[in-house]
Amino acid sequence: MIRIFFFVFFILFPALVLLISPPDMSEASDVFVLFDTTGYEQHIEDAISGAKMFINLLDTNDRVGLAALTDKYSISVPLSKLDSNALMTSLDNLTSSGSCSKNLHLAISDTIKYLSSINPPYSTLTLVVISGKSCKEAAFNAEIIDNLIETLNKKQIKVYGMGMVRNNPAVELAAETGGLFIPVAEKESYTSNAVILYEALKSPDLIPFQRGKFIVDESIYEVTIVGEKITKNNKLFLYTPDGKKYINNESPEFVSWHSYNKYDIIRITNPQPGPWTLQFVTGTQNRAYVNSSFKIMSYFDAPYVPVNGKIVFDAWLKMDHLYVKDPDILKSMEFTMLSSKKDEAETETDLRIEKNGNLRGVFRPGEEGLYRIMLNASSKTLTRGKSFVVIAEKEFNTASRTLKRKQKKELTFTEAVVVFLSVNLIFLTAAWGYLRKDDIKVFLHLLSHTFSKISDVQVFIQQLLHRKKQAHKNG
C-alpha cells in the first residue's frame, strides 16, 4: 500500500504542479491534418484552399503534419514545426480521386499508428479531418467506431474537422473525443468554414475589426487578419498608423500575406500601435486575431450542447502572468458576450462580474445549429475578445454508444488512489495559499476531463463540484 502511495504521488505531483498555473490557451500544440481526396466530384480546389487557410492561421510555433487519402494512404509532411511551404506544396499536388469516400476510417486508423510512433511524443495533439461526401453504403458498424474512439481517447487525441456529415465517421469521433466537426453543406465554401474550424480548435483572442479598421494597443505583439474580398481577383490594401501602404507581394518582412479564393490572411509581427486599415474588405467573416500580454482566459470544454440548455462561460483577465482582479479596474471596463448562429446577426448580453473578480456569461441556444460565441472586455485604451464555437443539438446523444461501454468499466484500486490524491492535493495546495480558491473549480474540471474515460471517476468529480457549489452557496 505504501509503495503504491509513493509511486502514484511522485508520478502525479509533477503534473499537478503544472496545473497550479492556469493553462495558457496560446500554448503551442501539435496539429495533424488528414485530407481525404476521395469524396469530391468537383470543387476539391475550394477544400484545398480551406485546408491551406486553416493551416496558415495556426501559430507559427505549432507542430503541423499532413497525410492524404487518395487511392492509398500516405504521409505527405511529417509532424514537425510548421513548414508552410512544404504543406502548401503538398496540398497543391492533391487532386480528386473519387466521387465518394468509403475508407476514411482506415485512414484515421493508419494516422493513429503513425502518431503513436512519433519521437519525441506529442504534447497536446489534435487530428483534423477534412473530407467531402461519404458513400451511401459507407455506414460503419458500432464496433469499428467504438474501437477508434477507445484508441483515440487512450492516446489523448482529439478529433476536429470539417466536411459533409452523412456517414462520416469523423463526426462521431469528434463528439466522443471532446473535439468538434464543422458541417459543410453541399453548396457551402470550405474556405469560409476554415475560419470557424480554427476558432473551434484554438479559441483565439481577437480585437474589433469593423469596416476594415482595427486598433493595435501596446500589449499586442502579433496580429493575424482575415479579410474577405468582393471577388478572388480583387486586391486589399493595408495601411499602417503612419500612413504606409502595403499589398500582397509588396510588403515588408514583418508582414506575411496569403490569398485563398475570396480571403486574404495577413500576419503582422510586432505591429506599430495605433489605428490600422485594410481597404476594400467586405462581408462578415473578417477577423483580427491577436497574440498579446493582455488576455481573456476561459476554460470551456463542451462544444456540443443541448437546445435550450444553460451554458455557463467563466472567464478571467490576465496581464502578463498576473490576474486582473482589482475591483476599480473591473468597474472601469465593459464586459459583454456576443452570440450568433452561423451567418446570422449577433445578439449581445452583459457578462457579470463575480465577487472573486471572475466574469460569467450564460448562453441558451434556442434552436439547432452552429453558434459562434465571443466574450469581450473593453476599456478606454484597449479591447479584447475570446472566441468559441458550439453546436446545439435537439437530441443530445453525445457519447451515447460508448458511454454504455464506459459504464461497464469498474474503478480500479490504483485509479481510486490517484483520484483521492489528486483531489486532496488540489485542496491542500489551495489551503497553503499557492492556489486561489476560485481556481479550484477549473482544476477539478481539468481532472474530470483527464479521467473522462472512467465514468465512476467522472461522477465522483462532479459530486465534488456540486458539494463545492453548495458549500459556497451556504457560506
Please supply descriptive tags for the structure shown above:
six-stranded mixed β-sheet, alpha+beta, Immunoglobulin-like, 12 helices, globular, 475 residues, single chain, Rossmann fold, ten-stranded mixed β-sheet
Structure description:
By secondary structure, the chain is α+β, with helices and mostly antiparallel strands. The chain is 32% helix and 30% strand. The protein folds into four domains: 2-23 and 409-473, no CATH class; 30-201, von Willebrand factor, type A domain (Rossmann fold), CATH 3.40.50; 208-292, Immunoglobulin-like (Sandwich); 295-393, Immunoglobulin-like, CATH 2.60.40. The strands form four sheets. Strands 7, 9, 12, 13, 15, 17, 20, 21, 24 and 25 form a ten-stranded mixed beta sheet that branches. Strands 3-2-1-4-5-6 form a six-stranded mixed beta sheet, sandwiched between helices.
CATH architecture of the largest domain: 3-Layer(aba) Sandwich
How many strand segments? 25
* Biggest sheet layout: 10 strands, mixed
CATH fold node name of the largest domain: Rossmann fold
How do the strands and helices of this protein lay out in sequence?
Blueprint: H1 2-20, E1 30-36, H2 44-57, E2 63-69, E3 73-81, H3 84-92, H4 104-116, E4 125-130, H5 142-154, E5 157-163, H6 169-177, E6 181-183, H7 190-202, E7 205-206, E8 213-216, E9 220-228, E10 237-239, E11 245-246, E12 255-260, E13 263-269, E14 274-279, E15 287-292, E16 294-298, E17 304-306, E18 311-319, E19 322-324, H8 327-331, E20 334-341, E21 347-350, E22 352-353, E23 359-363, E24 369-378, E25 383-393, H9 400-407, H10 413-431, H11 440-450, H12 455-473
Parallel strand pairs: 1-2, 1-4, 4-5, 5-6, 17-25
Antiparallel strand pairs: 2-3, 7-15, 7-25, 8-14, 9-13, 9-15, 10-11, 10-14, 12-13, 16-18, 18-19, 18-23, 20-21, 20-24, 22-23, 24-25
Helix pairs in contact: 1-10, 2-3, 2-7, 4-5, 5-6, 10-11, 11-12
